[in-house]
Amino acid sequence: MAGFSKNIDKNSIPSAPTSEMELLGTTSLLNYHLDNGKVVSYDEMKLKYYLDKDKVITYENEDKLKGAVMLDDVLLRVDEVPLIKLYKKFDTPPAENMYLKVPCIPKNNPWHFNCKNSMRREIRNLTEIKHPNIPKLYGYRELDGYILGLYIDKYDITLEDLLESKVDFDRHKFFAKLCEIVKSIHKQGYVHADMHDLNIMVKKENLDEPFLIDFDSAEKIGTETGRQRKYVFEFRDKVFNEDIDNYSLALLKKRLEIEDDKIEATPVIATPDE
């Protein structure tokens, strides 16, 4: 989470984590740079989230304070999400292959990302969309009546790190499997709407098999984007459809340096805010 709640005095927040804070998790986050309201570039931030009583504090590289938010500003209450009652409540990860996913807020985002609705979507989507290569939702952690985070499957390496490592893997097999995952999601009436190198992962024991993560952006096919301001300018009046994911697949095909498997798609930039 990056940014500060209005009622938090920035000077009262420690510049580095203290021993009293609990590490909730880590994430890689895209920080967008804008020109006249359009994304012109972005960079990646490595962030760590810490729980400090009634707020969550974010640091970059352990010693750079990025934000502090009150729980009520970013977390849903358990009684606000009927679907969460389908799952168990855990105080710690129920197994080693699971981790706690906590909500996050991009530092600079043209879509005014809404943390609570992000969590609400993720719960809905992981409940309704089924595939062995997407995370399974096992339960949640509760804090003072709030959903602090979701316990889901943990994977080892992002596609970005895999490509940068120069390790050999079967790129054609990898891409074919990714297309099959996306096709299954579409058949279930959804689009992922946020496919990129950081949201595709693998397990160490099989680098040829991708797993698609981060479903807080996924939406039902046919949902209007204009009402929710999920697009920048020219895409604002469109609806969620398969072209969004197909365009992402086309970009990933280039990234993987694959020449076959032609994909026709319309360029779309998508990320939800509400």
Characterization of the model:
α4 packs antiparallel against α5 (242-255). The protein has two domains: 3-153, no CATH class; 157-255, Transferase(Phosphotransferase), domain 1 (Orthogonal Bundle), CATH 1.10.510.10. The protein has five helices and 14 strands. Residues 106-111, 227-235 and 263-274 have low confidence and may be disordered. It is globular, with a radius of gyration of 19 Å. The chain has a five-stranded mixed sheet with strand order 1-5-4-3-2. Strands 6-8-9-7 form a four-stranded mixed sheet, with helices on one face. The chain is an alpha+beta fold and 274 residues long. It has helices at 71-74, 115-128, 159-165, 171-187, 242-255; strands at residues 3-4, 22-35, 38-52, 55-60, 64-70, 88-89, 98-101, 137-143, 146-153, 157-158, 190-191, 200-203, 206-212, 219-220. β3 and β4 (55-60) form a beta hairpin. One of its GO terms (biological process) is mitotic DNA damage checkpoint signaling. One of its GO terms (cellular component) is nucleus. It comes from Mycoemilia scoparia.
Residue share in β-strands? 25-35%
Question: What is the SS-derived class?
Answer: alpha+beta
In terms of quaternary structure, what is this?
A: single chain
From N to C, what is the helix and strand string?
EEEEEHEEHEEEHHEEEEH
Number of helices: 5
First and last CA, distance: 16 Å
Secondary structure: number of strands: 14
Spans with pLDDT under 50 lasting ≥5 residues? Answer: 106-111, 227-235, 263-274
Number of domains: 2
The gross shape turns out to be globular
Helix content: 10-25%
Q: Which radius of gyration do the C-alpha atoms yield?
A: 19 Å
Strand order of the largest sheet: 1-5-4-3-2
The averaged pLDDT comes out at: 82
Most strands sheet: 5 strands, mixed
